[in-house]
Amino acid sequence: MAPATLIASETSNSSNAVIQNKKNGVQSKSVVPKLWQNPQTFATKAIQDPWYTAMFGLQSTLFHSSIGFFHRQMGYKYLIVPITTNSISSPMGLGSDSQPVSIELHGEQTYIADSQQFVLEYALRLQDGLAGSYYVGTSCRGEDPDATHLNQFCHVECELLGGLDSGMKVANDYVVSLTESLLREHADAIRAYAGSTSHMDSLIQLYKSNGNTFPTITLDEALALPEMTDDMWKYAVEGEPQFGRSLTRKGERMLIEKYGGACWLLEMDHLSVPFYQAYTDDGVKKALCGDLLLGLGEVVGCGQRHQTEEEALKALAQHEVDPQEYAWYLEMRRTKPLTTTGWGIGTERFLSWVMQHDDIRDIQLLPRLKGVECNP
């Protein structure tokens, strides 16, 4: 049953959903319904509301554009992935950025995949010289949802040969390619809800004006900015400075505005991120990773992986994760060491930016909010 706190009156009737009139010379925005707030009536109302028709089209274009980018432009191979795993990519050690979802399946304890990063790393070792592998699918996590976070979301992830710079370049090119595709196919629908498409044009221009990349700043540099206030950052473990620092959503949005719409935040404190991120140097304090900040905050997470078994073992010990649970992951590196980088994009966060919308829960066509029963 849906918690009582989620049962609220809807903010609009579907008849209000498409508004094309102008008032005082300004384009009126179409009304975004909050149908997920009433899960019992969601199924019937959503199929009558133009917002969900628009989201259906956007999500379809996002999928097909992703396939075109990775398959035709990059020459990557698609990996059909399982929904369960015995090796979650964010184990409950230091730096874990999600809560795993444990289930019993046919009498065995396992997890619903929170990411397919590890199997994508495996896929690169199935074919020598393969430039990259990717998939589009669902990630499941145990945290409570809110306006910027979903416990089940659509993930586009890839793993590629090369270091962090190579991974960031592919992520940049993908984001711009996807933005251009959505502009071509859905400009009218985007304008109806976002008010304009100027934010998308500006992102493309920012990319081009920076030499086909986006601005970058390290975590240490960001924390030293005069604009940085106490509510823009936090300790990864509350009250424990030794476990590293991270930015809050407010801090991420400050950087987005400062750098003209998007930027990369680099070199996180290693104990504030999962164990699998490579080290920047022998000091083992900084991670060779970055987040692309856009719209609601972090949209893409990117990181170079440990190349050798020894490096991965050191990180597992530092993060207080039992290495036995990742024996196959370590053996994979012993059998075939590679320098690889992977990244993932939460598509609902990206589409929230496209639609200039502030609540990610409205992006899902099929809501799967933790603790809420919703059909279909």
UniProtKB/TrEMBL annotation:
Keyword Nucleotide-binding applies: yes
Keywords, alphabetical: Aminoacyl-tRNA synthetase, ATP-binding, Ligase, Nucleotide-binding, Protein biosynthesis
PANTHER family named among the record's database cross-references: ASPARAGINE--TRNA LIGASE, MITOCHONDRIAL-RELATED, ASPARTYL/LYSYL-TRNA SYNTHETASE
Protein known as: Aminoacyl-transfer RNA synthetases class-II family profile domain-containing protein
InterPro entries: Aa-tRNA-synt_II, aa-tRNA-synth_II, aa-tRNA-synth_II/BPL/LPL
Domain of life assignment: Eukaryota
Classification lineage: Eukaryota, Fungi, Dikarya, Ascomycota, Pezizomycotina
Domain Aminoacyl-transfer RNA synthetases class-II family profile: 69-367
Annotated organism of origin: Trichoderma guizhouense
Annotated SUPFAM superfamilies: Class II aaRS and biotin synthetases (SSF55681)
Record flagged with keyword Ligase: yes
A GO term for molecular function: aminoacyl-tRNA ligase activity
GO biological-process terms attached to the record: asparaginyl-tRNA aminoacylation
